[in-house]
Amino acid sequence: MNRNAKFWLLFFGLTFGVLAAVVLAVEIGPVPIPYDMVVRIVLSKLLPNAVAVDWTSVQEQIVWVFRLPRALLAVLVGAALSVSGTALQALVRNPLADPYTFGISNGASVGAVLVITLGAGVATGFSLSGAAFIGALITMVIVYGIAQQGGQVSPGRLILAGVAISYALSAITTYLVLRASSPGTNSAAIALSWLAGTLGAAKWEQLGIPGITVFATTILLMLQSRRNQRTARQAIEQRSASA
């Protein structure tokens, strides 16, 4: 079996596994719904009048309104973690690299916890997500700046700078949460809930931006990877020809 055949076999196998996991996640819950009914409800939404309706409105609401958006958001989160982890591992040539190694996750935590503890825009999800993104971006810029030496960035310095900044930001997050845990306020509870993460409030309208971002970023990184591979092959061929 050649390389392309293995790739497509793995691709379709993993795709089928993800779809099966989504159906299983929607099926399981306090109100169990048979997997075939889950599939038919989804098909009825995608292809109206294509499936005979033999379920109640409550079952349809459970599947389409509550459980399916949560399952799809979980898939997007997993895909985003996978793509970002792969990019960071390629950047530092280390299979153990992840967003925590570079302090990116802790930078996002500091940004979101600052918004929560300061009480600015707590009610709006965009304020929290925007603050988390800005915190992660600033952290990456700082780590990248510290890791530079003579205009060059080595993978080792990048990891060491990321770990050091990560510990510092983790301490800042802990301090902010403890400082907000005064009697009569629930800022600390909100912050801890955000840090723990939840998909319970997922809605269809919240899937658009993450989906487009993950898809566009994945395509961009794949194109960049192919360009780098061609450049590396050309360099190897030039060295071989000169030798």
**Record field, number of beta strands:** 2
Q: Regions with pLDDT < 50 over 5+ consecutive residues?
A: none
Largest sheet: 2 strands, antiparallel
The rough form would be described as flat
Mean pLDDT: 84
| Structural class assignment | mainly alpha
Strands of the widest sheet, in order across it, are 1-2
Strand content: under 5%
Distance between the termini: 34 Å
State the order of secondary-structure elements, H for helix, E for strand: HHHHHEEHHH
* Helical content class: over 70%
Radius of gyration: 23 Å
Number of domains: 3
Number of helices: 8
Oligomer: single chain
Structure description:
With 243 residues, the chain is mainly alpha-helical. The protein folds into 3 domains: 1-92, no CATH class; 99-205, no CATH class; 207-243. It is built from 8 helices and 2 strands, in the order H-H-H-H-H-E-E-H-H-H. A two-stranded antiparallel sheet has the order 1-2. The radius of gyration is 23 Å and the shape is flat.
